[in-house]
Design goal:
alpha/beta, Rossmann fold, nine-stranded mixed β-sheet, five-stranded antiparallel β-sheet, about 25% strand
Length: about 350
């Protein structure tokens, strides 16, 4: 038992079982013992590798998207370039390099980052220099916005509901014997409204998940994009139609583990519900593109042409690495189809 495990047990003893979302929030964001508060999780020595760490090609293609989005908005000056959850700053570095020769872009952009982790902030300042931090999109300045979010929404807590033979119940975390355990809490009549009508008659054993935090951020983003003009690019692993299974998972040193194992010491994520988030964006006045796979999006941006250009000036070893990174990003059996992309426009 670690310290956060004890804190969670004490909380459950005092107030009863807690939701999966509350457990994830504590495990990831506890101010002293939370996963994102005490380690740098990204990279080969961490628990997972994000697309920008796989290859510079990824961030450069987002630079292509940013330049084109800025052009279609009428080349506003100034505009806010906002990244949600920028990790080690790798993707933003690549975006800035890819747009350095886009006439007027560099002088017009003002960089804003949404990042709560102090260690990652220090790393970002090392590679990006003068940037401004904001807590949420409401704090972004009153100017046109370009927002990028890569593997940000998957880290937001989700609530989970399961259909039983007696009806719908919420999956909660409790204590059983000497260990944390998953239990089921029946829903009251008001809570039943959280289950979409299309799911109400699901077979026993089916699950429904939703992220209150993700939905709130997309609502906030849609309103900001509509009122200030702008575009948002959302990239994450997720689904268009839910499977009815749990998508919450834990990773430690790139290996799957139990979600209740060593809270605060393993990464917890859940797949992103793209359909629901785009529905919310449209309900608040924004427009959304088709939801496509990451491979299709990057190919449309010209990633294969860029890879070929880099290979021409590379050593054989470098060329092989460029090709391997490209395939990992776009192949369907790697990140190409599991990761989805959608554009939201004000």
């Amino acid at each position: 038992m670690n310290m956060l495990d004890k804190i969670i047990r004490d909380l459950i003893a005092a107030q009863g079982a807690i939701s999966i979302a509350s457990y994830m929030e504590l495990a990831l964001q506890h101010p002293e013992f939370g996963y994102y508060k005490k380690r740098e999780p990204i990279g080969r020595t961490g628990d997972f590798i994000t697309a920008p760490e796989v290859s510079q090609l990824f961030g450069e293609m987002l630079g292509v998207w940013c330049a084109e989005a800025w052009r279609t908005l009428g080349k506003p000056e100034p505009f806010a370039l906002v990244e949600l959850g920028p990790g080690r700053g790798t993707m933003m570095v690549d975006i800035l390099r890819a747009t350095i020769n886009v006439g007027g872009f560099k002088d017009a952009r003002k960089i804003y980052l949404v990042e709560s982790d102090e260690a990652l902030r220090a790393r970002q300042k090392e590679v990006l220099g003068d940037v401004t931090y904001i807590d949420d999109l409401d704090q972004a300045p009153q100017m046109p916005l370009l927002i990028v979010a890569n593997e940000f929404f998957d880290s937001l807590p989700v609530r989970q509901f399961e259909k039983t033979f007696r009806g719908w119940a919420e999956r909660v975390v409790t204590v059983s014997g000497d260990a944390l355990a998953i239990a089921l809490r029946p829903l009251n009549e008001a809570e039943m409204l959280l289950i979409p009508q299309s799911f109400r008659e699901a077979e026993p054993g089916k699950m429904f998940e939703f992220s209150p935090s993700a939905q709130a951020i997309v609502r906030e983003a849609a309103r900001a994009l509509v009122s200030r003009k702008g575009k948002m690019l959302l990239i994450d692993y997720g689904y268009v139609a839910p499977s009815g299974a749990s998508t919450v998972q834990a990773l430690s040193n790139h290996v799957s583990t139990d979600i209740l194992d060593r809270p605060g010491e393993v990464d917890l994520t859940a797949h992103v519900d793209f359909s629901t988030l785009t529905d919310i964006a449209r309900a608040h006045g924004a427009k959304t593109s088709a939801i496509v796979g990451q491979g299709e999006f990057l190919t449309n941006c010209g990633i294969e042409l860029r890879a070929d250009a880099l290979k021409k000036h590379a050593t054989p070893k470098q060329a092989a690495d460029i090709h391997a990174g490209l395939q990992r990003l776009i192949d369907d059996d790697q990140m190409g189809s599991l990761f989805k992309v959608v554009e939201i426009t004000g």
